[in-house]
Amino acid sequence: MRQVTLLDILTHPIAKKYLTRSGMAHAVSVAYHAFRLSVRYNVNPDLATKAALLHDIGHYEWYTDGEWDYEKYKQNDIHAIKGAERAHKLLIRLGEAPKAAKEIALAILFHTDSYLPEGIIYQRPLQKVVRLADEADEEPGGKHHYRQMDYDLAIKKIQDLDQKVDQLLLSKQFKQLG
Ligand SMILES: [Fe+2]
Question: What is the CATH number of the domain that holds 154?
Answer without folding.
Answer: 1.10.3210
